[in-house]
Amino acid sequence: PAAAADGVDLASDATAAVAFLFAARTASAELAEKVASTLIAALEKALPALAEETDSTDAAPEGLPENLTAVEAILLGLATIAAKNAAYVTEKLSADTIVAQLNQTYKAIGYYKKVAVYAAKKQQLDGTPSTQALNESAVTITVLTNLAALVGPLTTKHLPSATLVPSWEKSAPLPRVAGKKSARESIL
């Protein structure tokens, strides 16, 4: 599997990252370490863009990769491998530089999740959005939720223990939007 990743950027190629997630799920104990090494290298390549620092805590982080699904697949693959070889994955992800980048990434994901929820609600209030736009918003929110659940424990040098459904298999429903109430409804 590691040889198959030569020349492929897992951090930006969702199809390849999903293939490695499948490899992680089906890998024997002997191959799990090789798959984990490939996934960790891809995560290390993706983290600088995810963990882009800002000048102030209120400023918007920049640099999230266009394909968050690829990063989600990488992290899901690492969580799967961790169930087979926790010591190896924990050791590799406990480096101080990786933990610092994971902390910045976690903050950026939190910010962008708030922005995505706001945008989805605004889109619903502004008119009749297309079904495709609503589906894209739901997938974006699901990806960010999964990333937060996967990155959060790693920031404290723990492995994620939640079983997550990948965003490409099922997306979460959009947040409910309270519509404008008529004068009569607001009195009742």
Secondary-structure-based class equals mainly alpha
Spatial gap, N to C terminus: 63 Å
Supply Rg. 19 Å
What is the arithmetic mean of pLDDT?
79
Number of helices: 7
Shape: elongated
Q: Provide the helix percentage.
A: 55-70%
The portion of residues forming beta strands comes to under 5%
Written as H for each helix and E for each strand, in order along the chain, the element string is HHHHHHH
Tally the beta strands.
Answer: 0
Main sheet makeup = none
Uncertain parts = 53-57, 181-188
Question: Which terms would index this structure?
Answer:
mainly alpha, 63% helix, 0% strand, disordered C terminus
In brief:
By secondary structure, the protein is mainly alpha-helical. The protein contains 7 helices and no strands. Helix 3 crosses helix 6 and helix 5 runs antiparallel to helix 6 (131-154).
Report on the structure:
The protein is mostly helical and 188 residues long. It contains seven helices and no strands. It has helices spanning 14-26, 29-50, 68-84, 86-93, 96-125, 131-154, 183-187. Helix 2 runs antiparallel to helix 3 (68-84), helix 3 crosses helix 6 (131-154) and helix 5 (96-125) runs antiparallel to helix 6 (131-154). It is elongated. The N and C termini lie far apart (63 Å).
